[in-house]
Write a structure and sequence with these properties.
alpha+beta, Double Stranded RNA Binding Domain, four-stranded antiparallel beta sheet
């Protein structure tokens, strides 16, 4: 199943990038470049969702439309999609 949540990235004073997912509590990433931060965001999103789905009463948060994110001028919003395979027995 594919999940796509928006992430917000910003270049730091040191030249690296940091980012976060507005919809995924405490899901933050860093990277030496924007590409690195996006790759790390993909893995962080996959891990966050996988852990949440392990909970008995799992409910994933609603997905904010990237257009609705009030990003600062120096922030970059990207939709980050991940595919997660469910174990046998899940309906997709």
């Amino acid at each position: 199943m594919k999940f796509t949540y928006p992430a917000v990235f910003k270049k730091t004073e040191q030249g690296s990038f940091e980012g976060y997912f507005p919809d995924l509590a405490m899901c933050r990433v860093t990277g030496d470049s924007l590409d690195d931060a996006i790759r790390n965001a993909i893995e962080a999103e996959r891990e966050w969702i996988s852990l949440e789905l392990e909970e008995e009463d799992a409910e994933l948060p609603a997905i904010t439309d990237p257009e609705d994110i009030d990003a600062a001028q120096d922030e970059i919003v990207r939709s980050i999609g991940v595919n997660i395979r469910f174990f046998e027995g899940w309906d997709e």
